[in-house]
Design goal:
It is globular, with a radius of gyration of 14 Å. The chain has a single domain, classed as YqgF/RNase H-like domain (Nucleotidyltransferase, domain 5, 2-Layer Sandwich). The longest helix is centred in the C-terminal third of the chain and has 21 residues. It has 4 helices and 5 strands, in the order E-E-E-H-E-H-E-H-H. By secondary structure, the chain is α/β, with parallel strands linked by helices.
């Protein structure tokens, strides 16, 4: 199975995770600084090439009640740009992914400073694990 990239797209950063070669587990990779949609697409496609990923799973920040809001609309622009660049995309409801990631990092006894450094990629792991568990739809 080819690898899959998981993306937690925020307004300032993009957390990135990738599956292992067997497609069974997600691992944190990096956090990219947002530089504008076109440059962000270049950064992500470079990672797709580096990891020979067949697709990207992008977290869609729906509102608490599951509706499509302004944050989801901004992420949709990025999704459309990735798709236009030839990237196969799956979307995954990312509600509470950062909370779940934060709880995991606290349980791992990471300091607040260290958690801030890795939270975006940890949220990308949560999103990718949801996709691996077929919880996205």
């Amino acid at each position: 199975m080819a690898r899959v990239l998981g993306l937690d797209v925020g307004s300032k950063t993009i957390g990135v995770a990738v599956t292992d070669e067997l497609g069974m587990a997600a691992h944190p990779v990096t956090t990219l600084a947002r530089r504008g949609t076109a440059k962000d697409v270049v950064q992500v496609t470079a990672l797709i090439a580096k990891y020979a990923a067949e697709r990207a799973v992008v977290g869609l920040p729906l509102e608490g009640d599951g509706t499509f809001g302004h944050r989801a609309a901004r992420v949709r622009v990025f999704i459309d740009a990735l798709a236009a660049a030839g990237v196969a995309i799956d979307e995954c409801d990312e509600r509470f992914s950062t909370v779940e990631a934060e709880e995991t990092l606290i349980a791992a006894d990471l300091s607040r400073h260290k958690r801030r450094q890795v939270i975006d990629r940890a949220a990308a792991v949560v999103i990718l694990n949801r996709w691996l568990a077929h919880e996205c739809g």
